[in-house]
Write a structure and sequence with these properties.
It comes from Bacillus cereus. The protein is mostly helical and 110 residues long. The chain is built from 4 helices and no strands. The chain is elongated, with a radius of gyration of 17 Å.
Length: 110
């Protein structure tokens, strides 16, 4: 499994082993156990937007303390020519929501 998928296949392998099955190989790429997260709650809106900007290659430390909204995050991504710049706003919003859901799920699976 890759990223969150690694956590999913790990959970599946553990369940199979608990049921007496043998798991010969488990390969995980870029996956982190939930207990390494700073907290086990879903991220705040601002944390999710910072992660979205990081995904787009933007350094959130350059925000100069300005409040971050979905609209301002999209504007930053478009202005800086991010890899996400050509995506429709709805797609960018879906990326953020997927991140929120994934982190929330991972935080519950410790």
């Amino acid at each position: 499994g890759w990223s969150l998928g690694g956590n999913v296949v790990h959970a599946m392998a553990a369940q199979l082993q608990n049921e007496g099955e043998e798991v010969e190989l488990l390969v995980m790429l870029d996956s982190y156990p939930g207990h390494f997260l700073p907290n086990t709650e879903a991220p705040t809106e601002e944390e999710a937007l910072i992660a979205l900007l990081a995904l787009g290659g933007y350094d959130p430390d350059n925000m100069d303390g300005k409040p971050l909204t979905m609209e301002s995050a999209v504007e930053i991504l478009r202005k800086d020519g991010s890899a996400l710049a050509s995506l429709e706003e709805e797609t960018i919003l879906n990326l953020k929501e997927t991140y929120v859901n994934s982190v929330g799920l991972l935080g519950k699976y410790v």
